[in-house]
Amino acid sequence: MEKKNLIKQMLCFTLLLGIGTHIHAQSDSGFIPTDFQGYYFSPQNLGFATPQTAEFVQYGNTNVNYYNGLLDLDIPLFDYKDTAFELDMSIKYISDGFKPGRRPSMVGNNWILNVGGSITRNVMGNPDDIRQEQKSGLLAAIRDGQFKQYSKEDLLNLNIPHATKNRPYPETEYDMAPDIFDFNFGRHKGRFIIDNNGNAKCISGGGYRIDLSEMSMQDYSTINAPKRSVINITTPDGYLYSFGGGVSCLEYSIPNNPSKLRSRPVQITSWYLNSIKDDTRNQAVYFSYQTRLQKNKYHLFMNSYVTGIQWTYYKPDKNGYTKPTESRSINDKDTDHFLMEDKVYVPILKTISVEDIKIDFTTETFPVNFFGDSDGNDLIYLSGITMKQDLNILKSCKFDYQTSGRYFFLKKARLYDQSESPAVYSFDYDMSSALPDPLTTNVDHWGFWNGGYENIDNANTFFYDGNFEQRKAVNTGVAGCTMLKTITYPTKGEEKIDYEYNRYRHYLTKKTDFFAWDTNMATYDTPLGGVRVKHLTLHDPVTGKDRQRSFNYLDPATGMESGRTHELPRYRMPEESMNYGYYYYDYTENRNLRVYSISSNCMGRFNNISEYPIGYSYVTETFDDGSFCRYHFSSLANVPDNAELGDGYIKTPDNLHSRSFGYYQILDKALNYAPNDLAAFRGKLLFKTTYNNRYHKVAEEEYHYNVENKTADYEVSINTSTGVFLASKIFTVPCLLIQEKLTDENGVAILHNYEYNANGFVTEKETVNSNGDHVYLKY
Fold it and tell me: From what superkingdom does this record's organism come (predicted)?
């Protein structure tokens, strides 16, 4: 059987911002102890520098199921096939909503070009590959011989030394929080981490061999481009995929690092696919890129204050005289606005070469700068793709766009082959509103536009003009703005899409007396940013008839919305009372302080970075003849994140006598109160039940997964915040289907049971027929 490899992948423009932004408390009063700097307030930016990396991580090139309420639209462009390779190219639409700060990809707002592949990482702590004087990344420490071998039990229990030299608070000797790498290329999608031996460990199964030997260690720099870096993945069918190389194949960012904020280094975010090799046939596919600057900017507003009173108690002098007790008020406030800027250097695909076949990607630039800067036009668009054999054009496609302000939208895709006329896809959007500036501050909790046009650059105005809550609220009236409304296919058939705003009924809150989360039920169907699909209506130009599918997301047992989200976005840290005592030769000081902070960015993680903010555990799809299907998915209701707490360590600041926060509130304050992620087991289809238009059940599908073993294997991550350690688990068990049961309208059932090897491959399929016969198929 001939080996073939399907390469069907989104080309992302984007950077996933891996390191949080930390502010160090500044005080003119001088009353905060040295090792207390930055202890109170470390708001973390959870946005994305060029946000489509988020889509890459969340969606990849696979179908988006009903669980997220998102449109599944993938338009094929053309393909290449030979005896060794099969390359498919398409464009994919992401129907989540309109985010003003999200730069359009080179095929327009909310579209992604699916071709090639990449490895994208989410940085945890310090980047694994960055070498620095203190606290190098995990892989850099291993390569430099700093690493000490610890068992999982020792790591989980923090039986490790603390580094204190030249540091304001104890830390691990090097970064011990491994980054998480997501790869997506062709039919292959998964994630891996670097384990304590310096090897890549795939935490999604699949039998991939991941070679990091050419992944260079980067010297700490805030200005220099990274060195050559390559990651190689060999797939189970024997193909070798190489990612990265020189800077043209690396996506990296150079931050502006404003004063008062903790400096971040230049870091690689994505390694782009540069070649695919089939060594058995001595054939290869090569990808070439050009580097283009795609800036990202966003506002960061912060306010922190410390208020209280200081009492000075004097001791008697040598004559027995005691000075009267003195007191003074403390009122230290720090309010800042930062315009954050990352210079993001992005690989833009130029050519794909396979023997005598060359595929050229032609890009141009609209005469506009996305953020309105004066340093040149930077809104890149793909105008065409051409496949040639020698000088002969085999296939091509051209793209037309509609512009609005600093955004552009794919209007037509024209596909040319050997036929006389092109196949044309046309697209129409909801353009009923004037679009805001990309830096507008009128975005909701989840980054979607909520209808305003403000661009505030003053922190006091942003926080205290009385409109803060309204400014961050969801505006359901503009939820569908810029969304794709109509697709016209080459057959002249039309498909109309109707959306509605997302809604949730259940959300999570942290406990303060225990490491756990409570599930809360809202009293009404609460809006959440973005949209979900409500109707799909297909018009047949031959018959003149419409066929409609409708979707609702209600729990059929309760009639309530089934939408669930994680924690709700939070901007304020509760006020804490703290008492300090200082003892000197002839007097003592006592300081009773109240500490408070607020940020325009969410404090802490409120959902997993690779997981869509909302999931619907129940979805009903109704057809125009009255028949319908009901889907039930695993969700936070039955697969919550793991709340097993590893050991923790909190450095108590010197001279601190008492504080109002308990252990778990302190963890939360240090942004270290987070569960162990089990998102891989959510969004899985559990039941599909089909009914005819007389409400008679005609078929049922039931699916079971290895949920019982979901926490059986793990690696340990140790996150160090200012004075706070916490050991957590990264689970490495892939989600696998172990049983499916198919039942017809007569109650006749067929059961399929699956067994797997250590790489997640099926080794045996057992079929149990309704008469009790067993059939085994071994692989």
Answer: Bacteria
Q: Cβ distance 362 to 383 under 8 Å?
A: yes
Burial class of residue 318 in the structure, from the number of CB atoms within 10 Å of its CB (0-12 exposed, 13-18 middle, 19+ buried) = exposed
| CA-closest candidate to residue 113, choices 249, 186, 9 | 9
| Class of residue 543 by CB neighbours under 10 A (exposed 0-12, middle 13-18, buried 19+) | exposed
pLDDT digits (tens, 9 = 90+) for 603-638: 555 556 668 999 999 999 999 999 999 999 999 999
102 vs 438: CA distance, rounded Å: 8
∠ CA 713-142-645 to the nearest 5 degrees?
A: 35
* Residue that has been written with the tokens 């569960």 in this structure: 675
Tokens of 631: 């889907």
CB hemisphere CA count around 328 (13 angstroms): 7
Question: Tokens 């688990």 — which residue?
Answer: 729
pTM: 0.89
pLDDT for 168: 66
Token pair, residue 727, equals 């050991």
Residue with tokens 């310090």: 126
Compute CA distances 241 → 61, 272, 275, 353, 360, whole Å.
Answer: 17, 10, 6, 15, 21
Q: What is the token pair recorded at 351?
A: 């050519």
- Contact, 99 vs 448, CB < 8 A? yes
Would the pLDDT of 9 be above 60? no
Residue 771 in any domain: the answer is no
**Residue 372 in tokens:** 């309105």
How confident is the model at residue 36, as a pLDDT? 25
The answer as to whether 35 is a domain residue is yes
Q: Where is average pLDDT lowest: 11-25, 209-223, 498-512, 755-769?
A: 11-25
| Domain extent for 286 | 6-747
* Cα 507 to Cα 283: distance, rounded to the nearest angstrom: 52
Rounded Cα–Cα distance for residues 265 and 423 (Å): 47
In a domain, 775, yes or no: no
What secondary structure, in 3-state letters, does 45-57 show? CCCCCCCHHHHHH
With beta carbons less than 8 A apart as the criterion, state whether 342 and 256 touch.
yes
- Is 755 part of a structural domain of the chain? no
Mean pLDDT of 383-408: 96
Distance in angstroms (rounded) separating the CA atoms of residues 127 and 42: 19
